[in-house]
Amino acid sequence: MPDATDPRQTMELYLLRVRRALGRLPEGEIVEILRELRSHIQERADRAGAITRESVQVALEALGDPVELARMYLNENLVARAVASRSPWLILRAIFRWACLSAGGFLVFLLALTGYGTGIAFLFCAALKPFFPGHVGLWWRRNPILFDLGAHWPIPAGARELLGWWMIPVSVVAGLALFLLTHRFTLASIRRFRHFRLMPA
Amino acid sequence: MAAPRTTVPDATLPGPMDKWEVQLRKGCLELAILASLQAGKLYGLEILRRLERDSDLLVAEGTVYPLLSRLKADGLLDSQWVEADAGHPRKYYRLTPAGRRRARAMARVWCRFSASLGELLEPLLKEEL
Q1: A111, A185, A199, B3: which is deepest, by most CB within 10 A?
Q2: What is the torsional sign of CA B31, A90, A198, A18?
């Protein structure tokens, strides 16, 4: 049972809450963050005269809510890793975090999801075409109007497939182009996010 | 014992302007941290005290450490743990060459922007007199 009057235990409890909220970071980075926060709290309490329950409490209050503090580390860290790695997955995760903070971020997240999703759908259609040549293609029908690219089971009545085997190169080029354009857009957006990141006042 | 300092917007600014001032201060924080390290290495609490002493930013303490961590990940800062007489180690930060270049570039942009905006704003301030 932790002793609430022991200043060191108060500090360690705070750091434990930060550690829990930092869960997804690599262990080495967590250790480094906690070591620095511990050093800060001790230094601040020392400057107040001695490490007492009150001086530690003041230091912890100045640092703020441990979960919020961990969230800021995660935001900073995720954005830095996303930009450095250029991984679409990391970029999407960073933009998702941004989407939780602002309407602009939400819009960028929707556009990124649509762009990456459509790009992947094009590539998926190209991969399916050799296995289901009669079901995958660019479909057209005048009445009622139908114009779509994809797979149909069963084939819509009266619909005509327009591309034939051209479906494969067209889908690959369109899919890659969309994927790359979305990637460039998300990277540019995430760099913008770095400069306009929201932090608690 | 000093009470923890937080970012306090100008009380004369009505609602939406509070947010504007908070955002303005936040936008300057990265430049202020880089500038505080211009003269040499400092550890987290020293950076905070330096910002309190030499700027009007009144930074919330919890915002500085994640930002330092990111600036280091960006290659703008370097860090080193040093054992101190106080009995606990301190993590000192210093500018890397890239960080120094970035700080100079940001300072140039800031000064140019501030000077050009100053000319535009001067008549507004004269109106108050």
Answers
A1: A199
A2: negative
Tell me the Cα Rg of chain A.
26
User: Are the beta carbons of B86 and A63 separated by less than 8 Å?
Assistant: no
Answer whether B62 sits within 8 Å of A48, measured CB to CB. no
- Alpha-carbon distance A179 to B119, whole Å? 46
For A4, the 3-state DSSP assignment is coil
Confidence of residue B5 (pLDDT cuts 50, 70, 90): very low
- Cα–Cα distances (Å) from B113 to A159, B32, B62, B110, B117, in that order, read 61, 16, 29, 5, 6
- Please list every residue in chain B whose beta carbon sits closer than 8 Å to the beta carbon of residue A44: 45
Q: Which residue of A has its CA nearest to B7?
A: A201
State the Cα–Cα distance between residues A15 and A70, nearest whole angstrom: 10
- The strand order across the sheet containing B42-43 reads B42-43, B89-95, B77-83
Does the pTM exceed 0.95?
no
Tally Cβ neighbours within 10 Å of residue A119: 21
Whether the predicted interface score ipTM is above 0.85: no
